[in-house]
Amino acid sequence: MKKLTIFAMSMGAGGAEKVISLFLKELIKDYEVTLFLFYDSIHHPIPDGVKIISLYPSSQNNWLRRLCSIPKGILAYARFLRKTRPDISLSFLYRPNVVSGILAPLFPHIRFIISERNYASIEYAREGVKGWAGRVLLRWAYNRADTLFSNSEHINKDLREHFHLTLPMSVIYNPIELPKERHNVSREYPTRIVSVGRFSPIKNHTLLFQALRHLPDHRLTIWGEGGLRSEYERTLAELGLSDRVSLPGNTKHVLDEIKQGELFVLSSISEGFPNVLLEAMSVGLPVIATNCLSGPLEMLNENEPIDIEQGGFALAKYGLMINVSDTKGLVSAVNYLSDHYEQRNFYSQKALERAEQYTLPSIYKQLKALIEEPI
User: Fold this and answer.
1) In 3-state terms, what secondary structure has residue 65?
2) CA distance 277 to 196
3) In the Cβ-directed half-sphere of 150, how many Cα atoms lie within 13 Å?
4) Dihedral over Cα of 283, 285, 286, 287: its sign
5) Which of 107, 108, 77 is nearest to 6 (CA)?
6) pLDDT digits over 149-204, tens only?
7) H-type helices in the chain, by residue range?
8) What whole-number distance in Å separates Cα of residue 102 and Cα of residue 63?
9) SS3 state of residue 23
10) Which residues are registered as beta bridge partners of 245?
11) How does pLDDT run across 51-108, given as a tens digit for each residue?
C-alpha cells in the first residue's frame, strides 16, 4: 500500500479542514495515511488508522510563531520525509504549500501535490514589503511542486494571470456527504436567516447586519467564531439588533443547525469554493450568495456569467445572487424569497439537485486519479 502524507495547518473548524476530513474517509481505504499538521487543533473527525504529527501544541498564531513557522516547517517536514519516505505529499493552503514547494526538488521520488483554496490575489493582497515577499514566495515555491489543484476555475485563472504559475493545474470541487434529513419548506412567512463563517473581514458579516436593519420581521443566526466577535457584538448593540442576531459560536453539527433556518445567506467578499454554501444546499435551504470570486458563480449558475443590477438580485439556476457588499440587493433578495413560497420551494429543490453532483465518492475518484498520475 502506498504511503500518503497530508500536510495542513490544522484540523480546526475551517473549510479546507472539513474537506480533508471527508477525503480521509476514502484515502484511508487506499493508502497508508499520515496527517502532518502545524497545529494540533482538531475540530473535524479523523478516521482511525490515520497517524497524526503536529509541530505546535495549539493553533494560537502569534507573530513569532508566524515568523518561524515556515523555517521550522521546512526542517521538520524534511526530517519527516527522509525518515518515512512517503510516495505522495498532499498539502493544503499557503504555508504547507510553500514548504512543500521548497522541498519538492530535494525528494524527486515523492509526488508533491499542492492545493490552493483561496482566491490568491484577494486573500494575499497585503500591503508593503511583507505582502510583496509573500506573493513572490508563493510564485517561486508553488512552481516547484509537481501539480496543483484548486476548487475553482477562477482560482486557477487567477494563479496563472497574477502569480505566473506554470505547473500543471486542475480543479477538484469540494465533496459533500448528503444528509438523511432535509429542510422542509413551509408556506408560512420565513423569518429565520442563517449563515456560517469565521468572524473575519473577508466574510463580510456586516453586510448581513446592515441588511437586517431593513428586514424588521427577520432574525439572523451566524455559526462561527473569530477575532471580530467583540466588534460584531458592539456593532449589533449600536444598531439595536442584539435581540435579533445570535452568534452561538462553532458547531460540529453544521447541517443539523442550519436546517433549522429558512433562508441561507453567504455574504463574503471572496471565497474559494464555500463549503457552507454547499452544505446549506444539501439540506434543501434556498440560498442567496454574493457573486464573489470565486465559488458561488460555479455552484449557483454553472459558472455562466450573470448580470446583476446594483441594488437588485439575479435568479441563477440554483439560487439567488447579489453583488458583493450590496445591502439593498440583499434586502431585495430576502424579501423576494420571503414573499414567494413557490420560489422558495423551487430553489429548495434546485439546491438539493445541485448538491447531489458533489457527493464524496464522485469527487474522490477525481482526487485519486490525480494522485495516481505519474511524476
Assistant:
1) helix
2) 9
3) 26
4) negative
5) 77
6) 999 999 999 999 999 999 999 999 999 999 988 999 999 999 999 999 999 999 99
7) 15-30, 63-84, 94-103, 120-123, 128-142, 153-163, 206-212, 229-239, 254-258, 275-282, 295-301, 327-339, 341-355, 360-371
8) 22
9) helix
10) 220
11) 999 988 876 666 666 667 789 999 999 999 999 999 999 999 999 999 999 999 999 9
Task: For Cα atoms 326, 274, 319, give the angle at the middle one, nearest 5 degrees.
Answer: 60
Q: Grid coordinates representing 6?
A: 497530508
Give the cell for residue 214: 431593513
> Which neighbouring-strand residues pair with 94?
none
CA–CA distance, 56 with 61 (Å, rounded to integer): 10
Query: How large is the average pLDDT for residues 43-52?
Result: 94
Q: How many CB atoms lie within 10 A of CB 114?
A: 29
Residue among 294, 13, 35, 360 nearest 150 (CA):
294
32-39 and 111-116 beta bridge pairing: unpaired
φ/ψ region of 10 (left if φ > 0, alpha if ψ in -120 to 50, else beta) reads beta
> SS3 for 145?
coil
Strand partners, 169: 148
Cα(369)–Cα(172) distance, integer angstroms: 11
